[in-house]
Amino acid sequence: MTFDEILKKVRDKAAETDASGTDFLAVQVNLTGKSGGVFYVEVKNGKISVEPYEYNDRNCAINIEPANFVKLMDGKLDPVLAYTTGKLKVEGDLGKALEFSKILKK
Hints:
Number of helices: 4
Helix content: 25-40%
Strand order of the largest sheet: 3-2-1-4-5
Structural class: alpha+beta
Shape: globular
Oligomer: single chain
């Protein structure tokens, strides 16, 4: 998948996800490799925004290859396993990264 296709997939998922109960969460996703790029997912007042920019005041940043991120979104890759095997790296608040993965699974 290209960066734009992944971004669209994340936006589509965000549109159908109920984020009520989450006050604020800001996660920057750094897709590494050939078809990589940067985008952020922000949950604010129960609404999810996805934009193709860096987020300076983020809770955490996730570094992951595009193919593994797609597997994560599709539920084919466990986030804890991905973290412990080095497929996913987190800079910042690990708890917020876990909260983000739960929102992805909804």
